[in-house]
Design brief:
The chain contains 5 helices and 2 strands. The protein is elongated. About 45% of the residues lie in helices and about 5% in strands. β1 and β2 form a beta hairpin. It is mostly helical and about 100 residues long.
Length: about 100
């Protein structure tokens, strides 16, 4: 406990590792794993077209039909009606007050 003798070597190794990783690749290790595994993720920077176009989040969402929104205690008929919606792959459960749970 309290062995401060390892702090300086650890700080030096982090200081050297950061520029070395930038020389080897354009991404950090975690970003490299995300790309290799094909996990979908948002880019860290907003595309220029979105900034200059004045887009808002409301412009990007897909509105679901009311039949696809299910209450927590949905009846069998409500579930059947939701499943009949074409091109819908998810069915949010909406609590009172339009809060998705």
């Amino acid at each position: 406990v309290g062995d401060f003798g390892v702090v300086a070597p650890l700080m030096l190794s982090v200081f050297v590792a950061q520029p070395a990783s930038k020389l080897v690749g354009n991404f950090g290790y975690d970003e490299y794993l995300i790309i290799m595994k094909g996990v979908p993720f948002l880019d860290p920077e907003v595309p220029h077209e979105m900034i200059s176009g004045g887009f808002t989040a409301a412009d990007l969402i897909v509105e679901l039909p009311d039949a696809a929104l299910l209450p927590p205690n949905a009846t069998l008929e409500a579930i059947k009606r939701a499943l009949r919606q074409r091109k819908i792959t998810y069915y949010p459960i909406i609590d009172e007050g339009s809060i998705c749970i």
